[in-house]
Amino acid sequence: MGSRAAAAAHLATGAPIGTHTEKADWALEQARFLCDAGVEPRAVLIGHLDFRPELPYLLEIADVGVHLGLDQWSKEKYLSDEERVRVVVGLAAEGLLDRIVLSGDLARRSYWPGYGHVGAPGLAHVPVRVREMLLAEGLSEDDVHTLTDEEPPALARVRASLRGPGVRVRVVGRMRTRAAGILGLSFSGGGR
Questions:
Q1: pLDDT at 174
Q2: What is the pLDDT of residue 160?
Q3: How do residues 117-140 score in pLDDT, each as one tens digit?
């Protein structure tokens, strides 16, 4: 039901869709369902894919044309950041650099230094620590810049392509780097 509603909202407004997978289960099915429903593949971001870091599986999802969300950085209990870096390098070698979205799913206070948690990753982890790791693993400065400092072009088009009667869009949050997050959008109808 939620996927149908997301597809309908995309078709009405052009807004991108970000999905949540439970440990990367059903990621391929989500991507195929949304695209079969008429959603432009590059308007879809499938999240939590670093829970299942097998390159053949990720390449199968990439073949659908969607963005690949690796968003569990700093969560060593699931996978080490070193292994995540190897996944990114493998995807980059396959020419998928422009469809990789790095971020931190940091919803708990314990992930934030500002709440007194010394050594917690916070927003700086991906654009600082992971950046260093990607460079050390052999990605070029330009490649790392693409991953950490640029919005994916298809997702950046959202501001220009939103459509529909009475749709107002307000950017409610945007981080400087795509590594720290994608646009947070608030939609409302009416003539205001």
A1: 35
A2: 55
A3: 998 998 889 989 999 999 999 999
Name the nearest CA neighbour of 185 among 146, 155, 153: 155
Sheet order of strands, 44-46 included: 17-19, 44-46, 67-70, 100-102
Q: What is the pTM of this model?
A: 0.80
Contact 61, 37 (CB under 8 A): no
Return d(Cα 130, Cα 117) in angstroms, integer: 20
What pLDDT does residue 123 have? 85
The β-bridge partners of 171 are 185
The C-alpha angle with vertex 55 and arms to 86 and 49, in degrees rounded to 5, equals 85
- Report the distance separating Cα 67 and Cα 100, nearest Å: 6
Query: How many other CB atoms are there within 10 angstroms of residue 17's CB atom?
Result: 19
- CA 179, CA 151: separation in Å to the nearest integer? 9
User: How far does Cα 187 stand from its chain's mean position?
Assistant: 20
Give the Cα-Cα-Cα angle 11, 181, 43 (nearest 5 degrees): 20
Residue 128 φ then ψ, to 5°: -110, -70
Cβ 109 vs Cβ 117: under 8 Å: yes
